[in-house]
Amino acid sequence: MRRVALCLTTAVFSLMASAQTITYSSEKKVWLITSEYSSYAMGVSPDGQLQHLYWGGPLWRIDDLPAAAQRRDISSFDPHQMLENEEYPGWGGPRYYEPALKVARADGNRDLVLHYVSHQIRGNELDITLKDIRDDIEAILHYRVYPDAGIIGRWSTVRNRTSQKITLEGAQSATWYMPRGDGYRVSYLSGRWAAETQLNREPIHEGMKVLESRLGHTGHNLNPWFAIDSGDAGEEHGRVWFGALAWSGNWRISVEQTPYQQVRVTGGLNTFDFAYLLGAGEELETPHFYGGFTNQGFGEASRLLQKLELESIEPGEIKARARPVLYNSWEATEFNVTEDGQKALAGKAAKLGVELFVVDDGWFGKRNNDHAGLGDWVVNPQKFPHGLNSLIEYVNKLGMDFGLWVEPEMVNPDSDLYRAHPDWVMNFPGRPRSELRNQLVLNLARDDVRDYIFDVLDKLASQYNIRYFKWDMNRTFAEPGWPEVSPDEQKEIWVKYVLNLYDILARLRAKHPNLEIESCSGGGGRVDLGILRYVDEFWTSDNTEAFDRLRIQEGFSQAYTAKLMSAWVTDVPNMNGRNTPLQYRFLVAMQGALGIGANLNKWTDADFALATRMIGLYKQIRSTVQFGKLYRLLSPRTNDTTANEYVAANKAEAVLFAFRHSQEYSTLPPMIRLIGLDERSIYRVESIDGKLIGGSTEYSGAYLNNNGLQLMLKGDFDSTAVLVHLVR
Ligand code: DGJ
């Protein structure tokens, strides 16, 4: 047995003082994972089961925890296994809740009971090996603690050490347990195309709620994030357990309350249409599932996840770089891109202060509309008679970086690529190939397709001075057939597609360290912590209408940080036929990574003047917005006024954004109390447009936190921002 463990002999042990995140008591066979924010514990029962023991506020004394125990059956209908919180239960014996691992052996035997074998602690990482009580089928549970955010990353490696092949019928990353009890609520993000990340909050009752994607990508409909609170949490108070699954394919998170008042959350690879063959000696690693706890409400839960993203998940090389101000002509020109047209827009964008100029769809092949060209990644000579370099050099001379739109996973049947390789798309032979937006999905699970796509992108990035790819994916899977492999391997397409996608991204980044990538999937269809390891930002939604955006952005911010939230200012009327003032549109977009997506050819001098001022202002506040802490002060779901505050880590700068939906009954907008300022310090407040009521320009942090500011927000779609600077 392989074991490197720390034996605790002292009765009282201060984990805080030792700054040790993972400790083990060999007497009790208990592990305690602890950070400033939370603790997590599990132990081995006398019969060898690994049981969950604790998840909540920080503990400092491992001896307080009980050893894991075997329970008694309540009745022949209530077996003890259903009362024991197994950390990673196999499907076997009398277990009826959601299992973490389900296997089928070659002879049809499907019983799996996992017991503890060994463990290893390495700094902030812990591996615990479990094994079936008879066969050499192992699950190695991995735990990685991120002490600065109090978050634990969990995943497993399932290893077949038998001499027979086995089929995994379900492979989850982790099961999480709330303290036993009821009255919990679950928060989650739902939506659809152009209406992503809508926040829902509802009570948990007995039974199961499933959040999932069966779409092949992460999906617009549900996002792999959850928060569970004790029933009474608010933005800045109350106990919240939260988690996010790092997977960009079919995922599943089930939230289940058993008849024994136990809420459990199980997440990982979706079990729908899932089968993964493991030959003798083979293994599968499941996606990382991050989980954290706070007793300071949903706002703090978001800030902890956001911290994790900024410090530990975003690609390392350039994560310290603030997102540049971008221009993208998609909404202005759609497919009608030409060298001259793009140059004209680039000239105007540069004068505004734009730093990254992106050419969207339409630059390649016969791409004059969405019926043709996808797959043919060669510059269209009619649109760019002097090649792409002429435009890129022009853009670079204007002082901007150049970015290019690609949709590498797709093909139009009307393309040279499809004519040459009709077998490269996912398909069931003899069955229809369902088109969506006139396109089919290349079977990226195939290694030859993966290598082809890598070569295409590598050539583009090598041949041209491209700083940034907007990587799009504009449809969901259908007929996910992979006829070239044996029938018992065909369902692996769901997993291997994503692994190959990650592989391409990783290789591209390694070869082109300055290249940045935006994850877009018809808006926010591929927003998750799995792809975040390889990309710099997300395209939040194709809905750029500023009022709708407030709620999309509120939902996005539950799980993802502002720096990742690409947000454009576009023209009006936009979706819903709505008109909002240009300042309102700017201030909404300035709460994330600002971009301009308007048709600059139609802008007036006044529009240019306002935009130039707002972009200048954004550059002044962007490190606070992109790297600071977000406080959601007033929600657009429940208030006529929406307010968000961003505070720099050192509390020396803050910015308050506020938006009024409509003026009714001449009511005054509310006082807006700030959060997170240093109470003993003096701050100067600076309105961007004179809408601050009150004579003084200097206040103590205590006054701003406790009394707040009154803003003169009068009309429909009125907006303002207040900059807050530390004086002393
Ligand atoms: C969908 C994206 O979300 C849009 O921003 C744009 O890039 C189009 N695709 C182009 O086809």
Structure description:
This protein is an alpha+beta fold and 728 residues long. Helix content is 20%, strand content 30%. The protein has twelve helices and 40 strands. The strands form seven sheets. Strands 1, 7, 8, 9, 10, 12, 13, 15, 16, 20 and 21 form an eleven-stranded mixed beta sheet that branches. A hairpin with a 4-residue loop joins strand 3 and strand 4. Helix 10 runs parallel beside helix 11. The longest helix has 23 residues, at 605-627. Residues 1-18 have low confidence and may be disordered. The structure holds (2R,3S,4R,5S)-2-(hydroxymethyl)piperidine-3,4,5-triol (DGJ). Residues 330, 360-361, 405, 472, 474, 520, 522-523, 539, 542 line the site of (2R,3S,4R,5S)-2-(hydroxymethyl)piperidine-3,4,5-triol.
* Percentage of residues assigned to helices: 10-25%
Describe the biggest sheet? 11 strands, mixed
Give the distance, in angstroms, between the N- and C-terminal Cα atoms.
60 Å
Tally of helical runs:
12
Q: How many strands in all?
A: 40
Strand content: 25-35%
Rg value? 27 Å
